[in-house]
Amino acid sequence: MSVLSTRHKLEILADAAKYDASCASSGTKKRDSLSGRKGGLGSTEGMGICHAYAPDGRCISLLKILLTNSCIFDCHYCINRRSSDVRRARFTVWEVVDLTLNFYRRNYIEGLFLSSGIIRSPDYTMEQLVGVARALREEHDFRGYIHLKTIPDADPELTHQAGLYADRLSINVELPTEEGLKRLAPEKDEKRIEGAMKELRTSIEDMGDARKRYRHAPRFAPAGQSTQMIVGADGADDRAILRRARSLYDRHALRRVYYSAFSPIPSPSAVLPLKRPPLLREHRLYQSDWMMRFYGFSVSDIEQATDPETGHLPLDIDPKLAWALRHRGIFPMDVNRAPREMLLRVPGLGVKAVDRILASRRQRRLRLDDVARLTSSIAKLRPFLIASDWRPLHLIDKVDLKRRLTPPPTQFELFT
Known about the structure:
Layout: H1 6-16, E1 52-53, E2 59-60, E3 62-66, H2 93-105, E4 111-115, H3 122-139, E5 145-149, H4 156-165, E6 168-170, H5 178-184, H6 190-213, E7 225-231, H7 238-252, E8 256-261, H8 279-294, H9 299-303, H10 319-325, E9 333-334, H11 340-343, H12 351-360, H13 368-374, E10 385-386, H14 401-405
Parallel strand pairs: 3-4, 4-5, 5-6, 6-7, 7-8, 9-10
Antiparallel strand pairs: 1-2
């Protein structure tokens, strides 16, 4: 490997990290430099110039890099696989520490997302990742956010050490089905991956219980664990992906499942598809995931919104509207009487809008204009709601209702 400057390494390893989507920084404990030792550095709060967003909409800037893009594995879908013809680079532990501190001092970032290819062995690589987090926390009192991508095959003690320094840990399941993983990543094992996720959940819960009993017990991955699935690299349909996601949420108490649309890579393997899936498919999966987590929809509910033949969610309309169009019998719904769980199923009504409606209708009966002031768009709501001055009559029964509610195609402009 030729000698590269830190800048050249950064160009290579920051670009190589772009394929990992699981870098949101929501859910961690609030910390700042004032709450640490004298001279502490960093914060998990504030505004930045980054690409990750907390649930409340705050933008969190993360230095997102790989420790190295060299790897002893040969996963077909990975641009950094052993047989891939890409330029390789590797940071030392201290180069990553210096980059993080220097970027923070320039107000470029508020935290670090660090992953890596596997070099030498899983244990050796995990030791390097832990070394970065340990140096930042113990030697520089870095108070910002740290997300480490852990390695399922590494010694559990190393993962435990990582949790003492990082805010969030993640283990990628990679593909939604065991068959897909065997075909595209034969050196990885689904049982080892899920076993590592189970151990991580146990550690998070045990340390959480210890914190309740002993005030000075150490924190362990306070932002929990997450994972990522690649969409479109194998033949799994949206139903299979959402079933796997629901299973992971239930068994391992994940904070997030991230979906990453497969992107064709240079010198691709012959077993990979020739083109990437529509990015809108990734977006529909995120919408469905949100419906499961915050709107009370079950996996079977969302499966009813998929195409019976392909198993995929429609791309022209969102999954909530697709579900409502297949369950017209429960609509229209009275906005002044319907319970919260049913209002959450109305297309166009979000969690905040429903909570505003519930608060407002305690004071007065709501008219359609009142609902319009509490939501961002009333057009999609009209066929599905009854208000004190509005009944949709036969609108909900119209054969062309889907066409009426589907946004018209638009031509993008080159210069705007």
